[in-house]
Automatic annotation (TrEMBL):
One of its GO terms (biological process) is tRNA wobble position uridine thiolation. This is Cytoplasmic tRNA 2-thiolation protein 2. The lineage of its organism: Eukaryota, Metazoa, Spiralia, Gnathifera, Rotifera. Transmembrane segments: none annotated. Keywords: Cytoplasm, tRNA processing. GO terms for cellular component: cytosol. It comes from Adineta ricciae.
């Protein structure tokens, strides 16, 4: 997001060294007495199995209490193949399964923005995404290239190199382009909500970046995780 070389920063190096030397959590799981691997809610140690159960329960109870999604509503899930949206996709797929407690009731559609014209190596990711969504999870999949609906004489790579002068501007343009395409897919497929796999770290980075770019009062509008 920013262009400062973090590797040269003394504070960054100190934090990195501290993280590498961090010892494993030497506490027992609060639920089953196995060795804990994570501490949640400040002081509750949990093993992997108990943490997964806790996390899935939290996800479903939060959604069901909020009544965000109506029964049978068409909802578009933005999937990039990265860890956050993969976790989101699996949480939703699990919640939609017939045997799930507090079963989710909406219809899930999945959107993937194909960035292979910018990053040729991402063709492999696209193939894996197609296999996962279509064959294993069996949700409708909508793949749209990042060059979609552009003037035939220009591709997105050209626009990026010709019209932006900094890495920050390029990242912002790519982010906005992807969001625009996701909205287009949602409208075309009659999906009334769009879910993206943002996490707290991404949102924090986005807020700081937006503030640094002087967006002021619009910062709050840039960080909505469920778009209706
Ligand atoms: Zn446990």
């Amino acid at each position: 997001m920013c262009q400062i070389n973090e590797e040269d920063d003394e504070a960054f190096q100190a934090l990195k060294a501290a993280a590498e030397n961090k010892t494993a959590i030497s506490r027992k799981c609060m639920s089953c007495d196995q060795d804990a691997c994570v501490v949640v809610r400040i002081a509750d140690p949990m093993c992997r199995k108990c943490f997964e159960e806790f996390f899935i329960h939290k996800f479903r109870s939060t959604l069901s209490k909020s009544n965000v999604f109506g029964r049978g509503e068409r909802v578009l899930i933005a999937y990039s193949g990265g860890p956050s949206s993969t976790a989101l996709l699996h949480l939703i797929a699990d919640g939609l399964s017939v045997n799930a407690r507090r079963r989710l009731q909406f219809q899930a559609h999945v959107a993937y923005i194909d960035e292979s014209s910018l990053y040729p190596e991402s063709i492999d990711i696209r193939d894996k995404v197609t296999d996962l969504i279509t064959n294993r999870l069996q949700h409708p999949l909508h793949i749209v290239p990042i060059d979609d609906n552009l003037d035939k004489d220009h591709d997105f790579q050209q626009i990026l190199t010709q019209r932006t002068k900094s890495l920050t501007a390029r990242e912002e343009l790519v982010r906005r382009r992807k969001l625009k395409l996701l909205f287009d897919i949602a409208i075309r497929e009659n999906c009334t909500k769009l879910i993206t796999g943002d996490n707290c770290t991404k949102l924090a980075a986005q807020i700081l970046s937006d503030m640094a770019q002087g967006k002021g009062a619009h910062v709050a509008l840039e960080c909505v995780r469920i778009h209706s």
